[in-house]
Design brief:
Pathway: Amino-acid biosynthesis; L-methionine biosynthesis via salvage pathway; L-methionine from S-methyl-5-thio-alpha-D-ribose 1-phosphate: step 1/6
Strand content: 15-25%
Pfam families: IF-2B
Number of domains: 2
Shape: globular
GO molecular function: S-methyl-5-thioribose-1-phosphate isomerase activity
Number of helices: 12
EC number: 5.3.1.23
Strand order of the largest sheet: 8-7-6-9-12-17-18
Catalytic activity: 5-deoxy-alpha-D-ribose 1-phosphate = 5-deoxy-D-ribulose 1-phosphate; 5-(methylsulfanyl)-alpha-D-ribose 1-phosphate = 5-(methylsulfanyl)-D-ribulose 1-phosphate
CATH topology of the largest domain: Rossmann fold
Bound molecules: 5-S-methyl-1-O-phosphono-5-thio-D-ribulose
């Protein structure tokens, strides 16, 4: 997608053919800065510190992290060291484990001398595949939007609510939850997006609003608490969110606050869809609430807030009374019963084991 008219992806190999360039998402929406990762340790820090974030992009960065590790030292020991350190950076998004397992599985099959080239090639392939996957999600989601818009008599504004950032900035391009919105916009459907600000890190206000604005999609940022009220007043036609890990039974883990939106949607008869690539499905898990590891982040993300001052500087300020403790879980789990459907690259599934297995029959054999 575009930033100030220039087509970009979120991650790419630098002109020197080995450094890995990323957009520094901690500077958005105020500054568009890129950074070059030159070691697996820098890739690990970028994921941990959320310079890159969003489940598919975390996976891609992990893959390039292993490529950087293989460039430095392609021994088994270094592969295992980098794998373990990268995996530990963010525990909830399963795409990271998927990408690291994919690369490690391939790298251990070849001689150390062949590992660097293979790792770079496979990391690039993972990125290209993610773009195609997101486009397919977009096409399936577009059908849902078009059908609902037509059923409602083609109103002049079709309101979609989303939480956090599951757009192209969270992936390589297009996004998951936002891909259907971009495609609806391109198809001439008058889509308007309610963008949850998504405290504490404000990925909605800073990233989703930024990328929708850059693409010209009509949107309004709302405080996280407004969704229920808007739904009660008929102002939300559809909710679409992304996910960091979805169980084999269709429970969905996503940014903290998603569960409350799903409850409000259920209570108000608003369709609540989750968009996801196959890399986000954790086939080993049954019960999302009990089994998905929920990342707990530094309370400073809650107690401090960063923004732009009147004279254009970025500043971070403390917003809590001195001495008040804060707690900061990053994700919550929405039970499958609250999910209208899972929009995948293979089509739309019921949020259930059977629903997912219909789309991914090869998983039955495992
Ligand atoms: C397509 S991205 C899906 C999720 O990763 C997204 O909704 C989300 O919760 C991102 O969380 P973040 O903590 O910003 O990495």
């Amino acid at each position: 997608m575009k930033i100030y008219g220039k087509s970009m992806r979120t991650i790419w190999v630098a002109a020197d053919s080995w450094g890995v360039e990323i957009i520094d998402q901690t500077r958005l929406p105020f500054e568009v800065e890129t950074r070059t990762l030159r070691s697996w340790q820098e890739a690990a820090s970028a994921i941990r510190d959320m310079v890159v974030r969003g489940a598919p992009l975390i996976g891609a960065t992990g893959a390039y992290g292993l490529a950087l590790a293989m460039r430095e030292d392609s021994s088994d020991e270094n592969l295992e060291r980098a794998y373990a350190a990268l995996l530990a950076t963010r525990p909830t998004a399963v795409n990271l484990r998927w990408a690291l397992d994919d690369l490690r599985g391939r790298l251990t099959q070849v001689a150390p001398s062949a590992r660097m080239g293979l790792a770079y090639r496979r990391a690039a392939e993972i990125c290209d595949e993610d773009v195609e996957t997101c486009k397919a999600i977009g096409r399936h989601g577009l059908s849902i939007i078009r059908d609902l818009w037509e059923q409602k008599g083609k109103p002049p504004r079709f309101n979609v609510l989303t939480h956090c950032n599951a757009g192209w900035l969270a992936c390589i391009d297009w996004g998951t939850a936002l891909a259907p919105i971009y495609m609806a916009f391109e198809a001439g459907i008058p889509v308007h997006v309610w963008v949850d600000e998504t405290r504490p890190r404000n990925q909605g206000a800073s990233l989703t609003a930024f990328e929708l604005g850059q693409h010209g999609v009509d949107h309004t940022v709302i405080a996280d608490n407004q969704g229920g009220h808007l739904m009660q007043h008929g102002l939300v036609d559809l909710a679409i969110v992304g996910t960091d890990r979805t169980t084999a039974t269709g429970d969905v883990c996503n940014k903290i606050g998603t569960y409350l939106k799903a409850l409000a949607a259920h209570d108000n008869g608003v369709p609540f869809y989750v968009a996801l690539p196959f890399t986000t499905i954790d086939w080993t898990l049954e019960d999302g609430v009990k089994e998905i590891p929920i990342e707990e982040r530094d309370a400073r993300e809650l107690s401090h807030i960063t923004g732009r001052t009147a004279d254009g500087r970025l500043a971070t300020v403390d917003i809590l009374p001195k001495g008040s403790p804060a707690l900061n879980y990053g994700f919550d789990v929405t039970p499958a019963r609250l999910v209208t459907g899972l929009i995948t690259e293979r089509g739309v599934a019921n949020a259930s084991r059977n629903g997912l297995l219909k789309l991914y029959p090869e998983q039955k054999a495992k």
